[in-house]
UniProtKB/TrEMBL annotation:
Its main location: membrane. It is a multi-pass membrane protein. The keyword Nucleotide-binding does not apply. Residues 62-280 form the ABC transmembrane type-1 domain. This is Phosphate transport system permease protein PstA. GO terms for molecular function: phosphate transmembrane transporter activity.
Length: 295
């Protein structure tokens, strides 16, 4: 067999494997969406959940997921940005840097249930945060940090060295060069990483069972005081998220229309995650074209 035939065979094999992966993904997405879309309605999205009667919705669970997402990003993004800037622009290639990168890789490979139990023991029990949005957000930060650090560091590495040399030639300090030249150029990649990590946060369930809790108290959406117990902005209240709600409805079996609720909630979850991923690509490309002036 000639090298040309070998290359052609290898290309066909790779294309076949890729096609299999795509077909599996389309099958899973199609099955979830076909089963769940008929159950999605405005009433379903804006009504509170009902535990022992039919006709409940996912209003509070959907809001809890979005609130938890925002709070997690507020905690994890500054930490990830600082770590990525240090690793990309300041850290030397030595054993300390290697240890930091190894720690990031280990952190990204931890099972979610282990992180959830750790968050339960430390934040819920030891720090007396209880089952709360804050406990869940801190636990999810452990998931989000490795992904954000890698994506931001990759965006910083993608900036050409000529940009750094231009800042130095203008007499700027290293920090001013990073702040005024490198970060603006890397902004599309950074924002893309943030949006992609948001999709992972939104769909997490196992860690939140032990930290944010499995209950969704009725919220007062007119009460903007975050210190009030029934306020929708109170970070110390328990918060059942959409992913946890799907698990809970299927395991407890006390809701008469559990099948339709879990199917509709799963479809909503998939749609939101798809919007995060597709929106990240589109927004990153648009922002990159805008900053570079390309079409």
């Amino acid at each position: 067999m000639t090298s040309h035939q070998t290359d052609k065979l290898a290309t066909q094999l790779i294309n076949a494997l890729v096609a299999i992966v795509v077909l599996i993904l389309l099958f899973l997405l199609g099955d979830i969406l076909i089963s769940g879309l008929p159950h999605i309605s405005w009433h379903f999205l804006t009504s509170p959940a009902a535990s022992f009667s039919a006709g409940g919705g996912i209003r509070d669970q959907l809001f809890n997921s979005l609130y938890l997402l925002v709070l997690t990003l507020l905690i994890s993004f500054p930490l990830a940005l600082g770590a990525a800037i240090y690793l990309s622009e300041y850290a030397a290639k030595n054993w300390t840097t290697g240890l930091i990168r190894t720690a990031i890789e280990v952190l990204s490979s931890l099972p979610s249930v282990v992180v959830g139990l750790f968050g339960y023991l430390i934040f819920v029990i030891q720090f007396h945060f209880g089952f709360s949005i804050l406990s869940g957000a801190i636990a999810l930060t452990f998931f989000n940090l490795p992904l954000l650090v890698r994506s931001i560091e990759g965006a910083l590495h993608a900036v050409p060295d000529s940009q750094r040399e231009a800042g130095i030639s203008l007499g700027l300090s290293n920090w001013k060069t990073i702040r005024g030249i490198i970060l603006p150029v890397a902004l599309p990649g950074i924002l893309t990483g943030i949006i992609l990590s948001a999709g992972r946060i939104f769909g997490e369930a196992a860690a939140l069972i032990y930290t944010a809790g499995q209950s969704a108290p009725l919220l007062d959406y007119t009460n903007w005081n975050p210190t009030s117990a029934d306020s929708f902005l109170n970070p110390m209240r328990p918060a059942e998220t959409l992913a946890v709600h799907i698990w809970k409805v299927n395991t407890e079996g006390v809701t008469p229309d559990a099948v339709s609720i879990s199917a509709g909630a799963s479809a909503v979850l998939i749609i939101v995650i798809l919007l995060f991923n597709l929106g990240a690509r589109a927004f990153g490309n648009h922002l990159y074209n805008k900053l570079t002036g390309s079409k």
